[in-house]
Amino acid sequence: MKNRLLMLLFLLFTAPAFAQLPVTWEDLSQVNFIDKYFAEYDQYFLYPQFSDDVKALNGQRITITGYFLDLDSRGEIFVLSRGPMSACYFCGNGGPETTIELHFPVKPLFKMDDIISVTGILRLNENDVNHFNYILEECEAEFAGN
Predict the structure, then answer these.
(1) Does pTM surpass 0.70?
(2) DSSP secondary structure of 14-72
(3) Hey, what domains does the chain have and what are their CATH numbers?
């Protein structure tokens, strides 16, 4: 009985650390953009203004499903997109809120446009134009369909 009680207490206190929130692309669309000048590039970029609901996801372990994109011939820049490569943000469909930069501890073996579910820690990026507005760290992923 004592062992069961200890196990129950362990699960109650450690489960939140391993839990993840299911997030949809609709959830991430709650952001507005304004043009902001960045002197380093002598250009204007879209600067995100995240809603309170999106801000609440910052630092949370989330799961989201989308299309896997490998944007680098060396296989070092990975993105999750709401749509496939032929219909992604870079091709004029949607905005920056439809893509997430992925950081895997080990290089993934997925192919372009594989549909995957990714779990990781969400970081909101408001200022670094060298990275996406949404960044998912410590990623784990699995196939979610065709």
Answers:
(1) yes
(2) HHHHH--EE--HHHHT-EEEEEEEETTTTEEEEEEEE-HHHHTTTT-EEEEEEEEEE--
(3) 20-145 (2.40.50.870)
For 113, other C-beta atoms within 10 Å of its C-beta total 18
At 96-121, the pLDDT tens digits run 999 999 999 999 999 999 999 999 99
Q: What is the pLDDT of residue 90?
A: 60
Distance CA 83, CA 93 (A): 8
Residue 62 contacts residue 21 (beta carbons within 8 Å):
yes
Q: Give Cα separations from 14 to 10, 18, 42, 139 (angstroms).
A: 6, 7, 48, 20
What tokens does 111 get? 């192919």
Residue with tokens 């760290």: 137
Q: If we measure between CA atoms, which residue out of 81, 127, 128 comes closest to residue 101?
A: 81
Helices and strands (DSSP H and E) totals, the chain: 3, 8
DSSP assignment, residue 85?
Answer: G
Between CA 65 and CA 81 the distance in angstroms is 9
